[in-house]
């Protein structure tokens, strides 16, 4: 059935990524965990007609915030943002993610959807963690993570094949 929609949201990846950077990749019980779950999800991309038009995200208005209060060194945050901005698809950053908003679904939608502060300046931890990657995204052009330019697609703002 052709719905006419050019993109779908990759909820599977959104459910996997929050735990992927915390879990060990070599589980003793034989279950897939950690980054291996991301690998399995991406290995199933053959199910999509056009992987460049999949909307990918870390969090949204119905999911717990990606940033966690216990991530004091921002390691998980940095890895998650770098991954979402450098993998296939169209990255979506939910407001507040760039400012390390925290909150879980268990705390209620009001915590997840709280107002942006009116006095904010700059771009917060997102720009400080990944100035080259996020800076390229904001300027509207592709950002390659490797110097030879063969890194995975990253951060094209609104410019997709076949569009003007």
UniProtKB/TrEMBL annotation:
* Keywords tagged on the record: Glycosidase, Hydrolase
Task: List each copy of the Glycosyl hydrolase family 13 catalytic domain by range.
Answer: 7-105
Q: Which InterPro entries match?
A: GH, GH13_cat_dom
**What GO terms in the biological process aspect are recorded for it?**
carbohydrate metabolic process
Query: What Gene Ontology molecular function terms does this protein carry?
Result: hydrolase activity, acting on glycosyl bonds
Specify the domain of life of the species encoding this protein.
Bacteria
Question: Does this UniProt record's set of keywords contain Hydrolase?
Answer: yes
Per its record, how is this protein called by name? Glycosyl hydrolase family 13 catalytic domain-containing protein
Report the source organism: Candidatus Cryptobacteroides avistercoris
